[in-house]
Amino acid sequence: MPVEITVTPGPVFTLGDVVLKGDAIGRRPDEYLKPGARADSTLIIKAGEKVVEDLKEEGRPLAKLTERSVVADHATNTVDVTIAAEGGPVAPVGAVTVSGTKTVDPTFVADYSRLNGGKPYSPEALRKASDRLRQLGVFSSITIKQANELAPDGTIPMTIEVSEGKHRYFGAGAQYSTTDGFGIQGYWGHRNLFGRAESLRLEGSVSRIGETTDVGNLDYSAGLLFAKPGAFGPASTFNASLKAQLLDPDAYNATIFTAAAGATFELSDTDTISAGGELAWADVEDAFRNERVSDRIDPDRICPRYPR
Predict the structure, then answer these.
(1) In the chain, N or C terminus with fewer CB closer than 10 Å?
(2) Strand, helix or coil at 304?
(3) Fold classified for 93-164
(4) For 165-185, how does the pLDDT look when each residue is reduced to its tens digit (9 = 90+)?
């Protein structure tokens, strides 16, 4: 059977009067909805959510929407909107619990989130805590939930729900150069070595394959990279590395070992301070059998740096 559907969209309605009630009184309605704008339902829904979000930014974790009504006037093609919200009491963050961990220490997760008990409640702090934990690379999902009611001591309990991802990974690659021949690289890593998101990466490479037939004349390199978040507090990271190179191009032979260690401290959302040191040892022999051994300490790694 043929079916024909005809839709008459009608006129476009615009926003008329916008009224805020409850704990939202005192705020400017045009900050949420501008009279005269299109009365899109998504804008009205987001306005109610924004009112609640602003109340929570005042440290009111139990803020909620109590009314969101819309009245259409077909004579003027306008929509009057009323939004009412209840802020609830101001409460600091209370006990922080962690669920979903398997091999990661839940105490470390709570500490590294920096959702310390006693601090003022803030949705922005929750977002930053989630981003901070996500950057560790050990979790596939992170959700921070607050309790539906205050604890007897007047604080708001928090729960960090996580799901651990794969901690071990590996990879390999290859390249070709018309002058240096083939090269291969490989690496293996662990994102949670000792249960507190410590990362370890082993990598190595061999190059100049085909450019020379003597295995002893190939170029080799190997490295070990280690990082420990929260080594000196939740806002710090310790980094260390060991690297070795055996180089045998036509002009010289070189054996190089490099060791480096340092720490980074987060001062604010935009500023960090880093300090560290690097020690290198090299044994270089040129094509005329002239040998030179050197030790080097990189002063740029010893002096503190202040990246922004």
Answers:
(1) N
(2) coil
(3) Ubiquitin-like (UB roll) (3.10.20)
(4) 999 999 999 999 887 788 999
Is domain 168-302 in CATH 1.20.1640.10, yes or no? no
Q: How far is CA 262 from the centre of its chain?
A: 21
Q: What is the pLDDT of residue 118?
A: 85
Give the rounded distance of the alpha carbon of 155 from its chain centre. Answer: 27
DSSP category for residue 233: B
Domain boundaries along the sequence of the chain: 14-86, 93-164, 168-302
| Contact (CB, 8 A) for 103 and 167 | yes
- The CATH number of 14-86 is 3.10.20.310
CA distance 207 to 218: 6
Share in percent of the chain as helix, strand, coil (round to 5): 15, 50, 35
Within its chain, how far is the Cα of 123 from the centroid?
A: 16
